[in-house]
Each structure stands twice: as C-alpha cells, then as structure tokens.
Design a protein that fits this description.
FKTN/MNN4/W02B3.4-1, transmembrane helix, 31% helix, alpha+beta, 29% strand, membrane, 20 strands, single chain, Ribitol-5-phosphate transferase FKTN N-terminal domain-containing protein, nine-stranded mixed β-sheet, elongated
Length: 456
C-alpha cells in the first residue's frame, strides 16, 4: 500500500476515535445525568435549563426544611393534563425536561400555611443559595370580624428569584368554611416593581378560594414533586377561584346604626338559614349546578356579613343553562317539599321549596346580550314580571361558615335590585312593585296555568 494511502487511513482512524471519545464524554457528562439537555446554539444555558435548575435548587431547599409544597403552576399542570403529550414523551428515548420547563419566567408552588414553621432559617438558606427573596404579607381575614387593632400580618406570597427565574410560593390558609384561601398580592411602597413580571403571575391578582385538593407524590423531569391528584379539576377551580371578602368594617358601621336582632326567634332563624344553605350546597354539587346568593340573602351578606333576620326566606340564583330536570327530585330527596313551580325552562322558571318554616326560593336567570334577568309570576292572576340586572360574573365568598358564590359585581347587582338606598333596612317589601328593576312582562295564557302555575 502506498505511503500516502496509509497516511490517509491513519488520519481517518484517528478522527473516528476522537469523535467516539467525544460522544462517550458527552454521554457520561450530559445525557446520562437526569434533567434537561437543551443547550442554546451559543453553548449557554437555554431558558428551560435555567428554569429546571432553579426549580431543582428550590425543591432541594424545601425538602431540607420539610415544606410540603405542591405544584400549582397552571402551565406545568396543563402539560400534565394532556394525554397526547404524555404519549409523545414515551417515544423520546433520552432524558429531557417536558413538564417543568414551560418557558415561562415563573414557576408556582403552593404551601399549606399551617405547615409553615422555619421562616427565618428557610429564607436565610435561600439567600445563601443565591436566591433574592421578596416577602408579601397582609392582614389575616380570619380576624377581620373582630374589632381589633392587632396589626399582625401573615405571609401571603413569597417570590424567590435566581438567574432571572421566579419561584412563587402561594400560602393557602384554612378557613372556617372548610376550604383553602390565598390572599391578593399587593406591593407596598418601596418594593421593587421590577422584581418579577407581576402581570404574568398565576396567583395574586385577586384573593382565591379552593376546595382542599388531594395530593400525590410523583416524579417530574427527574424531580420529586407533589401535584393535585385531579389535575383537571384543580385547573378548573383556578380559573374561577376569585374570592370576595365580606366587608366587615362596613358591617360593623351598619350594625351600630341598626343593631342586629338578638331575639331567640332571630337566632333560631339564622340557624335554620345556615342549615338550609348547607343543604342546598350539598344537593346541587353532585348535579354540577353552581348557584349564588341572590336578592335579600345576597344583600345580607354584602351589607351586614350575615342574614336579614326579618326576611324569612333564603334566595339563590342559578343560570338557566345549568338547569337539570332532576333538580326537583334531588331537593325532595334531601328532605325539602316543593311549595310552588312557576314558568317553564324557556321562560321565567322559578322554584320554591320549604324546610320547616323557612322557604328556599330558587330563581333561574336568563342571559340576553349584556343583561341578565329572572322572572316572577303572580299565582292568582297569571301576571308575569321580569327583573333586569347588568351582566355579572361569579366569585366565591363566605357566609355562615359556608363557601358560597356571589355576583362579583355585587354593588351593581344589588343597586339594580334595591336602588341607591340599598343600605337602609326596609321591612315593608312588595316583590311586584318595590324592586328598582321590576318590569311588567305580560301574563300566562289561562289555558296553560295548570302547567305553568303549580302551587302545592
């Protein structure tokens, strides 16, 4: 073999050996390690690498201090809930970052506040790991009903920043209605408004309320992480979690002007209302029918953080789109008797049930463009009425130790129904003429009374 050919052959062997050695080095130092393997073209860490490394450092710190966190990040949980993505990931042979690397500048975890113990030590350790820390505190709403000047504040959110990536920790507090609550995130004067992309935070724009999620420990992208067992349900709750706190200070002012009725009859009525509201919630939840406090019951919550003792009934609203044919049977099974049924699903449906001597009025609301209305019927004449409200969305609130919905735009809702003097108690009330938003709406044909006007 000519010398030139041998030289070329040796060069090819040397190049091949060098390439094989490089592949072995890369496999041992990168691919064989758990975690992401996404390098930018410049050789620097890509954003997803930074996110994974930051989350890894944070979770190691949380594990050291025994913090029972769970993943509450909507982007990461959405990836988890997609079966197609999980199927795709089964086809990828090498380790990679699929769920925690969302390419967002924030990753969110939640923490049960009653498990928070090592505040000073944890935050100091975080700073020693290179995290910059922002603490956001606020008043404890569980003490708001007390006329106190305590001034003690509770942690609501922690923001930890490392390499430009933010870890948000949301504190969840147990409330008397057996649900979890987190506060709104509000920056105080002097705080760095450039610390994070606050508009991109999943939590904190408003206070929120959640059912207690069941958690499971799993492995995501090589890291031990707790997640809600029912991810889809948690994500659905998160979209509609906005919570409105009762206006305790205004309620105290109201009760100074108009002292609450403390008679045995009033106390007993409040007990019956509490029992009836809890029963309604238990009855409608399995049917997936959301309801909200309406009329006088909503007014009592907004005005005095309680019920109006002289109202003698409970009022709830339901969108007609959520009506289910078996709702009457469900209430009867729960022990209520049907008092009357007016109207029909297509027009002015209204149900009334009786529990002991307290009436539960169920008003069905119809959406019509930018307004919402519910109907009323006079049984003896067949006259129809319509009560018109501006459109509204639903928020969570608490009344009588129960997590209930109310219109988010509560003041607009009540002003439409009761006028500008809604804050003044009015014992004399005619449902056909007193409401500010009542309109005549014709009459039911006499031939249809037997079907549309049923009194029991």
């Amino acid at each position: 073999m000519p010398r030139a050919h041998r030289t070329v052959l040796w060069l090819l062997v040397a190049c091949s050996s060098a390439f094989l050695l490089f592949q072995l080095y890369y496999f041992r130092n990168y691919v064989s390690k758990p975690g992401p393997h996404i390098l930018s073209r410049s050789g620097h860490l890509a954003p997803s690498d930074v996110q994974w490394q930051t989350v890894k450092t944070f979770l190691a710190l949380a594990r050291r201090y025994e913090l029972t966190l769970f993943l509450a990040d909507t982007a990461a949980l959405t990836l988890l809930s997609h079966d197609a993505l999980r199927q795709r990931d089964r086809l990828v042979r090498e380790p990679h970052c699929s769920f925690l690397c969302t390419n967002r500048p924030i990753t969110t975890f939640a923490l049960h506040a009653n498990l928070w113990k090592y505040e000073a030590g944890f935050l100091l350790a975080a700073e020693q790991k290179g995290f910059e820390v922002m603490e956001l505190r606020g008043d404890d709403p569980r003490l708001a009903s007390l006329d106190t000047l305590s001034g003690n504040q509770i942690p609501l959110h922690f923001l930890l920043r490392l390499h430009g990536h933010i870890i948000q920790v949301v504190f969840l507090y147990e409330r008397s209605g057996n649900y979890l609550w987190h506060g709104a995130l509000r920056l105080k004067p002097g705080m760095d408004r450039r610390f994070a992309s606050f508009k991109r935070l999943d939590y904190g724009r408003h206070a929120g309320a959640y059912d207690r999620p069941e958690l499971v420990l799993t492995v995501l992208d090589g890291l031990d992480v707790r997640i809600p067992r029912n991810v889809s349900r948690f994500l659905s709750e998160q979209k509609h979690a906005r919570f409105l706190e009762c206006r305790h200070r205004d309620a105290r002012n109201f009760l100074q002007l108009y002292p609450d009725d403390s008679s045995p009859e009033a106390v007993e009525f409040r007990r019956k209302v509490k029992s009836l509201l809890h029963l309604a919630a238990r009855t409608l939840a399995p049917l997936n029918i959301p309801f909200w406090l309406s009329s006088g019951t909503c007014l009592g919550w907004f005005r005095q953080c309680s019920v109006i003792s002289y109202s003698r009934d409970v009022d709830i609203g339901i969108f007609i789109a959520d009506f289910r044919p078996d709702v009457i049977a469900a209430f009867r099974t729960a022990g209520l008797s049907l008092k009357h049924k007016f109207g029909k699903v297509e027009d002015s449906l209204e149900l009334s049930f009786l529990s002991e001597d307290v009436k539960l009025d169920v008003f069905f609301f119809y959406e019509d463009g930018d307004i919402v209305w519910n109907g009323g019927t006079q049984a003896r004449s067949g006259r129809k009425f319509k009560y018109v409200f501006p459109g509204f969305s639903l928020c969570w609130a608490e009344l009588l130790d129960l997590k209930v919905r109310v219109p988010c735009e509560t003041l607009d809702y009540l002003s439409a129904n009761y006028g500008p003097m809604w804050s003044v108690p009015l014992r004399s009330w005619d449902w056909k003429t007193s409401p500010s938003n009542v309109q005549e709406n014709g009459a039911w044909p006499v031939a249809e009374w037997a079907e549309l006007i049923q009194v029991y």
